[in-house]
Amino acid sequence: MSGKCEDQFMKTFKFYRARVPPPPLSKVIDVDNAAFADKITKLTFDNNVEQDDRLELLGLKPFAHWPVFTIKKHPGLIFIRNPFTSHGQRYWIRKCLEKYPRKPNKTNIDIEVILEDWWETCYEGHKCNIQLLKKLRWTTLGYHHNWDTKEYSEANRNNFPSELSELCDVVATYLGYNAFRAEAAIVNYYHMNSTLSAHTDHSEINLEAPLFSFSFGQSAIFLIGGEDKSTVPSAVLLQSGDILVMSKEARLCYHAVPKILSSPSSPWNDNVEDIHTKDVPKFRYIYEKDVIVDMNSNQNNGNWSIFNGYVQESRINVNIRQVLNETQSRL
């Protein structure tokens, strides 16, 4: 690929990555801002999806309160503006910090030291190990992406978290992707000076299935371009609770995160009340009891405080994809 082809994406990336002076944000698409109405299209769904009884359990608002958009310049890119309750945001933030970096899942820290439980190790002795806390950059779930070979394998696979699979199933079904199966995830942990370079996600066998991206914590500028770097990318503001779906034409487009931004609000702390029954006589889903216990625990700000401290200075992004074709059960 020629340098000329790379110029447009990299030029935009470097513009927004700059620290001194900080870049102006006037062209970053914010779906809440009426000034960008000509760049987005609000979507409505008449797919006869009934109200799902998993919504509240998974920390999601009723479907009627899901603002869904597409960016006109990028067909296949679907944006859901924070369909999560504050309970839901707390639940998923805590899962990403406390559970998902545990073994047998893999993290970037493994190359230095194997930690059975990263979060617990960070707080051993009731004192926070700041250096270790900030060292975590990613963890992988299900099929573990091999960063060297850019491939998946059966030998490098663990069970995918059932509650995260259900979350994807609810969102995918609502959008009409009824055959989607969550089989691999990369959880990225960003701090205020973090970036993610331009890349495409093409390691999966099934490149027709959409990619689901969930954001929590501080905000980010997300760049989305075309299938090569000659396309001038659009800059989109991602905030806590937002879901981005890359499907169809957008699935193989270059994308990047040049800057993390301080969020002006903390939606995970808004109107947190105990809305779950602690004594449920019958559980419909295998993960339901654990979810209810966790959400009620998060309602206590004392239990939540160390997670809140992390997310006030960081962004968490969960990227979920289907690896196999619909007819496959293994590689």
Structure write-up:
This protein is α+β, with helices and mostly antiparallel strands and 331 residues long. The chain has a single domain (3-321), classed as Jelly Rolls, CATH 2.60.120. 23% of the residues lie in helices and 20% in strands. It has seven helices and 13 strands. The strands form two sheets. The protein has a nine-stranded antiparallel beta sheet, with helices on one face. Strand 2 and strand 3 form a beta hairpin. Helix 2 (86-99) packs across helix 6 (288-299) and helix 2 packs across helix 7 (301-311). The longest helix has 15 residues, at 3-17. The chain is globular, with a radius of gyration of 19 Å.
- CATH 4th-level superfamily: Alpha-ketoglutarate-dependent dioxygenase AlkB-like
| CATH C-level | Mainly Beta
So what's the overall shape? globular
Strand content: 15-25%
- Through-space gap between termini: 31 Å
The poorly predicted ranges are: none
Instruction: Give the biggest sheet.
Output: 9 strands, antiparallel
Number of strands: 13
Tell me the number of structural domains: 1
Overall helicity: 10-25%
State the secondary-structure class: alpha+beta
Order of helices and strands: HEEEHEHHEHEEEEEEEHHE
Radius of gyration: 19 Å
CATH-derived topology: Jelly Rolls
